[in-house]
Amino acid sequence: MTAATRLISRLTLVTGGGSGIGRAVCQRLASEGASVVVADISEESANETMVGLQNDLRGQGHMAAVVDVSSKESVKKLVTRIQPPSVCVNAAGITQDHFLLNMEEDHFDRVIQVNLKGSFLITQAVAQALVACGAPKGSIITVGSIVGKVGNLGQVNYAASKAGVEGLTKTAAKELSRFGIRCNCVLPGFISTPMTEKVPEKVIDKMKSLVPLGRMGEPEEVADVCVFLSSDDSRYITGSSIEVTGGLFIG
Ligand code: NAP
């Protein structure tokens, strides 16, 4: 089997698949032969991703699905509608930036609910489905962030949520390895997506000046690492966090 078809006959689920990094992950998974469930809170953007996916490799069939990852009911509805996916990428996420001194409780709660609780609900539901059907293996990937390790001005909620998903993923890796399910995190730095379009130009310029490789990353560069972690090329990797930052905040 060539590297370009290493995910043939895998069913994959990608949350946040309607935009940015999640969309790039869907495209990369499909280009390697996977069937993709593109899940997003926005039906329109999930459909837009789905119709653009490569679908001419053996047995491929994609679908778009609406999910609010922060709702247990919505996650359950999605996961019971599909076959247990042997690959799951948690890419849904939001920011609601404010300085600590001014942050409303709602801003804190919502970011934790989507980024952290959402990753918990999806990881739990997918793992339960895989274990229940006796699947021999699975790979669950969560998109964290480098700011979960180092903090970031105006992002006390977001940094806390992303630090949380690393702990969640490492714990899931310990508990699920006996079922053949691997769990890993990808920690992007500053990537050009609709999420970072909201960041003021002068902040972006400052950040770029701190990146050793001298530029922002592209969603496809994060997707490549997610696809590596999805495939058997990473079969001996679990509980790890891979930084995709261009060297930003090297320890
Ligand atoms: P993005 O373009 O905004 O994509 C995020 C997607 O998640 C959007 O389609 C969004 O829908 C969807 N979403 C939001 N809330 C949801 C919910 N409750 N349930 C299901 N889907 C939901 O952002 P991105 O930059 O690609 O981010 C993807 C992931 O990478 C996030 O976890 C983010 O925290 C992480 N990350 C990004 C960067 C970066 O620099 N871009 C860096 C580190 C980590 P709507 O647009 O309709 O809200």
UniProtKB/TrEMBL annotation:
User: Could you tell me which residue ranges the Ketoreductase domain spans?
Assistant: 10-191
Question: Any idea where this protein resides?
Answer: Mitochondrion matrix
Q: Which CDD domains match?
A: BKR_SDR_c (cd05333)
| UniProt main location, coarse | mitochondrion
**Enzyme Commission number(s):** 1.1.1.239, 1.1.1.62, 1.1.1.n12
Any one Gene Ontology BP term: fatty acid biosynthetic process
Q: Keywords assigned by UniProt?
A: Fatty acid biosynthesis, Fatty acid metabolism, Lipid biosynthesis, Lipid metabolism, Mitochondrion, NAD, Oxidoreductase, Phosphoprotein
Gene3D superfamilies linked: NAD(P)-binding Rossmann-like Domain
Concerning Pfam families, the annotation shows: adh_short_C2
Q: Which domain of life is it from?
A: Eukaryota
Note the InterPro entries from the entry.
Answer: KR_dom, NAD(P)-bd_dom_sf, Sc_DH/Rdtase_CS, SDR_fam
Question: Coiled coil where?
Answer: none
Q: Which GO cellular component term is one of those annotated?
A: mitochondrial matrix
Q: What reaction(s) does this enzyme catalyze?
A: 17beta-estradiol + NAD(+) = estrone + NADH + H(+); a (3R)-3-hydroxyacyl-CoA + NAD(+) = a 3-oxoacyl-CoA + NADH + H(+); 17beta-hydroxy-5alpha-androstan-3-one + NAD(+) = 5alpha-androstan-3,17-dione + NADH + H(+); testosterone + NAD(+) = androst-4-ene-3,17-dione + NADH + H(+)
Pathway it belongs to? Lipid metabolism; fatty acid biosynthesis; Lipid metabolism; mitochondrial fatty acid beta-oxidation; Steroid biosynthesis; estrogen biosynthesis
Tell me the GO molecular function terms. Answer: estradiol 17-beta-dehydrogenase [NAD(P)+] activity; quinone binding; testosterone dehydrogenase (NAD+) activity
How it assembles, according to the record, is: Heterotetramer with CBR4; contains two molecules of HSD17B8 and CBR4.
The UniProt similarity line reads: Belongs to the short-chain dehydrogenases/reductases (SDR) family.
Query: Which PANTHER family does this entry report, sorted A to Z?
Result: (3R)-3-HYDROXYACYL-COA DEHYDROGENASE, SHORT-CHAIN DEHYDROGENASES/REDUCTASES FAMILY MEMBER
Please identify the protein, giving its name as recorded: (3R)-3-hydroxyacyl-CoA dehydrogenase
Organism, as annotated: Labrus bergylta
